User: Fold these one by one.
Assistant:
Number 1:
Amino acid sequence: MRRCIEIAKNGLGTSAPNPMVGAVIVNGERIIGEGFTSPYGGPHAEVNAIQSVKEGSLLSSSTLYVTLEPCSHFGKTPPCADLIVNSRIPKVVVGLMDPNPKVAGKGIQRLRDSECQVTVGVLETECREHHKRFLTFHEKKRPLIILKWAMTADGFIAPESKKRTQAPQPYWITNPSSRQLVHQWRSEEQAILVGTNTVLQDNPRLDIRQWTGKNPMRVILDQDLKIDGNFHVLDGNIPTLVLTAIADSSKYINGINYELLDFSKEIAPQICDVLHRYEINSVLIEGGTQTLTTFIKAGLWDEARVFTGKSRFTKGIEGPSLKATLLNSIRIDTDILNLYGND
């Protein structure tokens, strides 16, 4: 099962909204097949594992290990449970049950009805951690929410506006290694979210140009549609969703998706509802302070990744206030990365 989890990570950033499952087929003491979930729309892990077996006759005396319950319904691909039955695999070991209502025990029951011996709950804790994005989406009806920001040694996430106006330039807080790591993180999540001020001040691209993989969907909070088509986030090169209070579609840009929020009410739960409707399993929220604080105050976050660089601004925009459990502290060259969890 540990090998299943290990190879399943190959699907990180590409399999969503499907879960990134890993499957291993064992005959005696020998692994004869392995597979992980293909990019969304492609074969599931069990299919890839079964197809990787060179001696098909061995399947009838083998055990299939899989991190998540095999699916039992027709989606973009046929049910994996049916393929397992038709392949005459006699034993299946499952990490944890699938919370998706379309499956939710039906895959296991399908196997058992066909006299397949099924064991459930092996390394369940590890499998839950591995499938945290998929599980949060189905169990909490929202995406896994990861907060990320960088602060100077004196606690600022950006210099004061006056300094930016007088001396326009990129005011980097973190070193190149940390910045590249952030691009890797972006490639691992389905969406990235920022507020209006971040776009107006920094004109970010919100892409993964320093990494390889799939760009996340850009989600922009823009209550009054202050951001025009000259900004990178509205260039149409990456799927983009704008959350706004403006219902006048004549102000919308072609190729950009728009959804209305009621900004007189708490917006964090509304954002979660919209992203859930878009089948977004995970979102990386990169700021600024107001946007991050909105999710912190609502208690709607799962992980926080906070860099502290060695530079100082003396004056500027202070970083969010976070009281949470410190899980780990990592040095990245001249930076410190603190990882927090929301209990």
Number 2:
Amino acid sequence: MKRSEYQRAQERAAAILKSGGIVIAEPEAEHIEVADFGLGDLEVQGLQLITYVNSDRYCAKELVLFPKQTCPEHLHPPIDHEPGKMETFRCRLGKVLLYVEGEAASDIQAALPPGSEAYYTVFHEVELHPGEQYTIAPGVKHWFQAGEEGAVVSEFSSTSRDEYDQFTDPRIARLPVIEEDGQDRT
């Protein structure tokens, strides 16, 4: 991802947070993480996030999704005698379609990202609106997509170890590779 694209996504995410009345400090705005998951199509599969705290006991984040943007299917596996991350998603702005293991919806509302359909395997649909929340147990496959207006989700969880997340799409790289503008991607 080009540095200019990364910075535009940071600015856009900060503006969405502001529009939802979620105040962040300037240093937080400058450090919004932008994840394109190495797929090169941030608008379709990506996520913008701020980590407020991530200790050995708990974690709090804001997740910002652009309109119809999808965070790909993944799970949080057990690590070192810990059961894996348990997380509660609380919708703050917009609509979020969350998909978890369980009885599949007969007709899901989300649009599967073109070319990645085979990597989405769980379709129990949970629709979240502002003020609604859902807790995902450790080790449960899940993915989520914003509605037409985008969304903000507050995540409260046990310790986050994103580098250990297991994605169903083997092409995914969790940490972004940022190129300076004008450089070719290798």
Number 3:
Amino acid sequence: MSSTNEVITSGSYIKHHLQNLTYGQFPDGYWGFAHTSEQAKEMGFLAVHLDTLSISFVLGMLFLSFFYRIGKKMTYDTPSGAQNFIESVISYINENVRGSFNGQNPMVAPLALTTFIWIVLMNAMDLVPVDWLPYIAQKIGVWFGADLHHVFFKVVPTTDLNATLGMSIGIFILIIYYSIKEKGMGGFVAELTFHPFGKMMLPFNLFLEGVNLIAKPVSLALRLFGNMYAGEMIFILIALLPFWIQWSLSLPWAIFHILIVLLQAFIFMTLVIVYMDMAHQKEY
């Protein structure tokens, strides 16, 4: 991935693939791309991971445009294979929502569908050979005159903790919103202070329920990030092996990893449904 003749060690190769394409402001005020992990850290909180944003945005647009296009052409007489596929996915999501959500909220099923499909697509980027997209990104950068001779480009958005935390925080905001909307501010506060040990243990209840509330987005983010990060790391390690060994290991791992791709999206979606159900339950 380097345009120079430098020797790339195993350690630098792994580090290269685990670093995001970061754009931000350097300490001297100059805005540009980070060429080392140290430069990326110097950019601070306002640094932008362009690879995560671009890939997740493109995948989201592909998902929405595909479903919209098939939805506009739906027919009861001679449904296409794509229509049958979409209907089966929607039916599957609806069954999961009916089984785990007991409230009345027309937004929950679309939310579950969006999180499931979007995460599946982002996770599936892990099945693309690790060097392909970084190499393409480097060539595109050179074409546009960007100084990307040492390009960093993480192809799996869900291996970026910023992406998984961003999705989880969005879900957390919805949980708080619907908890207050369905239970009222008084009911929401009562749930945090009176449960599970009653009024006499109010400080202890508040501590336990506060930790439980904060743990929801944290667990959502870390579970998805950790599993996908580990899977990507194995693909990177396989890529370091001789070519004839790579294919003997990468294919079985890719087949097994398909299960991880789907399972992690399913777990995230299921927990979203369960958390939204808990937000609609009234105990006080």
